[in-house]
Design goal:
Elements (H helix, E strand, L loop, with lengths): L1 H9 L2 H7 L7 H6 L1 H10 L5 E4 L5 H9 L9 E2 L13 E7 L6 H10 L2 H11 L14 E15 L10 E9 L12 E4 L6 E5 L6 E5 L6 E3 L10 E11 L14 E2 L10
Antiparallel strand pairs: 1-8, 2-3, 3-4, 4-9, 4-10, 4-11, 5-8, 5-10, 6-7, 6-9
Helix pairs in contact: 4-7
Length: 268
Amino acid sequence: MKIVARLKALLTPDAVKYAEVLDYLNTEYLQKNTAAWADQYRNNRPFPHIVVDNFMRGERLEEILDNLPAQNQPMKRRSNSVNLADGRPAQRYKKSYSDMEVSFPVRQLIWQLNSGAFINWLEQITGIEGLLPDPVLNGAGVHVTDRGGLLRIHADFNRHPKYHLDRRINLLLYLNKDWDESYGGALELWDKTMTHCEKSVLPIAGRCVIFNTTSHSFHGHPDPVACPAHMSRRSIALYYYTNGRPAEEQNAAHSTLWQELPGEKGRG
């Protein structure tokens, strides 16, 4: 007991509080549905994925929403210099920050999503063994897109630039309370031939989307976000890797593959 007391004395009050409540996820619900979701995951189109509502415990979700940075708080702005062939930006008004740039509750949630216990569950859902988290959160973290912002349809980079591991899974956890459909910002999943969108997912708070990452897993939100000026489209994005991947998925290392869509001219 003396050791515990000494450890607590070294922590801030917030750290002590959150160290006692480590489970931000709706764990019992997730475990109960693992087998059914694993089957759905493998069979969903246009590529393996699952959409899970109520991913977090209700009180923990509210806590995360209350601890997100204020809209005017400085963040590490993601580069908007990448353009399509006709000069239009590939992404616009998008910001990001790492686990070390956020409040303790948000950081704790990210750590839980990178924990061994959660990755074990993720392997059961996806059927991919040997998944590894990314400790440096390359391209990942908390993403914020302001009004008028967009992210054009793309397939993500396929190799980690530092560890040279294969990127296999994307996890997107949305943090948008009272998000109306008229605000747009829905995640679009496109078919391999880039002819049509097969699924559209509204980014409501507590909704999690998990999907395979390949050179053909085309996704994004290509229309400008139309939320009120005081709001932003917010999410936690995490990526998981393996050492190697199936032969049918192998390609030379590449950066983000931006796509030109049918009728995309004029979409912002």
